[in-house]
Design brief:
- The protein has 504 residues and is an alpha+beta fold.
- It has helices at residues 48-66, 105-123, 133-143, 145-148, 157-166, 173-176, 191-196, 219-225, 239-246, 301-310, 321-329, 369-391, 411-421, 433-445, 452-459, 470-500, and strands at residues 4-10, 14-21, 26-33, 45-46, 73-78, 84-86, 96-97, 153-155, 182-183, 188-189, 213-216, 232-234, 237-238, 256-259, 263-269, 281-284, 291-297, 339-341, 359-361, 401-404, 425-429, 461-466.
- The strands form 6 sheets. Strands 1, 2, 3, 5, 11, 12 and 13 form a 7-stranded mixed β-sheet that branches. It has a 7-stranded mixed β-sheet with strand order 16-17-15-14-20-21-22.
- Helix 13 (411-421) links the parallel strand 20 and strand 21 (425-429).
- The longest helix has 31 residues, at 470-500.
- It starts with a strand and ends with a helix.
């Protein structure tokens, strides 16, 4: 009988499910949308029950498209950092607080003051930022103590879905690494960090292998999903780790560049390393004894989408992307001196500055719409380069970059990446992202392959390869220096603007 594997990604805007056959081909895929609640400015929440219903909907639709009613195993992926708290009966105490919620600035200061930056580097390898899970837990203790006192279990989104699938609590290293409570170097919960924050370690789930079986579908879960009781469920991975697996970025020397709504650079490393200034993240990969460095650009494709929408009048359709990119292609690299900072909602890497904002600099009457479009795209790629420049002193010498996300569909944007980053840019198929990576982990966990690396070699194939243009690289070198110098000159201005902003 043909074997099939199921990959599920519990994202922010949708739950996605992929059915993959034994050759690695995607034979069924579906997604179920999710809503994000914004009770107050800067807050972002979801009901965990929606994650489960979205999973049921997506899995049933994907399996129906594939024409199957059984899979060999299931892999899970999901948004990092988001906090779901359960009571003693495993009921949600409140809506989950998501990764993009920024209410926890005060708690981040408390964490940094309590353990110090040196302590953060040593204990968890990452700075205390609003996106991480631990500050959210402290916020609950400070602001909703009656609910906090009833909390018995902390779970991330994919692990909440796992609980409803197998009736047991578990996580795995790549998701645990995003909590700020995990010793990334030792791959275990940090007893010292947990004690310093005066938290109860009993609320944290056991940590299992990303490609190991964590349990099997219960009868009720199997009935809801339309699958067989007893189907194995593996550990899976956090969305960035799973997406890296899904594009074959699993060994040192590879690198993934993502241009979606946000952007990211992910580079696997064989030995745990931490940036002295913790300007980039250091997390466990979904592969044993492997880590990855990651830089995050908050507004990547979102920056181009913002600019596109500003060009249209109310009730008019924005201009097509292809038209804008064609105009940008007629402008030389460097946009004739025009520079754009893509910090429309602040920036994470390397500045960790929520006050930073988007800027056009160097504009003159000779600039036309194509210049502005190209400057926006170049600004996003230069933001990716910021991360790569921080990674190189830590031993990242990528021989190529695998481009993923919506931006990877643009040949123009891939050529820009190759020239600006100075490495060949490739694409691979299938382009399944995080749920495809979860399916690979499922195949390894059920014995279909001996290792994740073996599965990637068997299932993934290159589509194309773009070498850097020497001429464009030289122009981008000069343009990047303009870009790099701009933020330091505006940092105090951004802070002043934030102080002058009227209260919400």
């Amino acid at each position: 009988m043909p074997q099939h594997y199921l990959g599920i990604d519990v994202g922010t805007t949708a739950v996605k499910a992929l059915v993959v056959d034994e050759r690695g081909s995607v034979v069924g895929e579906a997604e179920s949308p999710l809503e994000v609640s914004v009770p107050r400015p800067g807050w972002a929440e979801q009901n965990p029950s929606d994650w489960w219903q979205g999973t049921v909907n997506a899995v049933r639709a994907a399996c129906a498209q594939a024409g199957i009613r059984d899979v060999e195993s299931i892999g899970l992926s999901g948004q990092m950092h988001s906090l779901a708290l359960l009571d003693e009966a495993d009921r949600s105490l409140r809506p989950a607080i998501l990764w993009n919620d920024v209410r926890t600035t005060a708690q981040c200061r408390i964490i940094t003051d309590r353990v110090g930056e040196a302590g953060l580097r040593r204990l968890v390898g990452n700075p205390a930022l609003e996106g991480f899970t631990a500050p959210k837990l402290l916020w609950m203790r400070d602001e909703e103590p009656s609910l906090y006192d009833r909390a018995r279990t902390l779970l991330m989104p994919k692990d909440y879905v796992r609980l409803l699938m197998i009736g047991e609590k578990a996580t795995e290293p790549s998701d645990a690494a995003g909590t700020l409570l995990f010793d990334v170097r030792q791959s275990r919960w940090s007893e010292e960090m947990i004690a310093a924050l005066k938290l109860d370690p009993a609320i944290l789930p056991p940590v299992r292998d990303s490609a190991g079986v964590t349990g099997r579908l219960t009868a009720s879960a199997a009935e809801a999903l339309g699958l067989a009781r007893g189907t194995s469920v593996v550990g899976g991975g956090a969305d960035n780790a799973a997406a890296a697996v899904g594009s074959g970025v699993v060994e040192q020397g590879a690198m993934q560049t993502s241009v979606g709504t946000s952007g990211a650079v992910v580079a696997p490393i064989g030995r745990h390393r931490v940036d002295p200034g913790m300007r980039i993240h250091s997390f466990n990969h979904a592969i044993a004894d492997t880590w990855y460095l990651m830089g995050v650009v908050l507004s990547a494709g979102a920056a181009l989408d913002w600019f596109r929408r500003t060009l249209s009048a109310p009730n008019e359709s924005p201009p097509p992307y292809d038209d804008l990119i064609a105009e940008a292609a007629g402008v030389p690299p460097g946009s004739d001196g025009l520079t754009f900072l893509p910090y429309l909602t602040g920036e994470r890497t390397p500045h960790a500055d929520s006050n930073a904002r988007g800027v056009f600099s160097g504009m003159h009457t000779g600039h036309q719409r194509g210049h502005l479009v190209r400057a926006v795209m170049e600004g996003v790629v230069f933001a990716l380069r910021d991360s790569l420049e921080l990674m190189r002193p830590l031993g990242v010498y990528a021989t190529e970059a695998v481009a993923v996300g919506g931006g990877a569909r643009s040949d123009f944007w891939r050529r820009m990446q190759a020239a600006a980053l100075g490495v060949p840019v490739v694409t691979v198929a299938p382009r399944g992202g995080a749920p495809y990576g979860a399916a690979i982990l499922a195949a390894v966990g059920s014995g279909g392959f001996a290792s994740v690396e073996e599965a990637c070699r068997a299932w993934l194939r290159p589509l194309d390869r773009i070498e850097p243009s020497a001429t464009a690289s030289a122009a981008y070198g000069e343009a990047y220096e303009r870009y790099r110098k701009l933020y330091p000159r505006l940092k105090s201005h951004f802070a002043e603007q934030a102080q002058d902003k009227p209260p919400e």
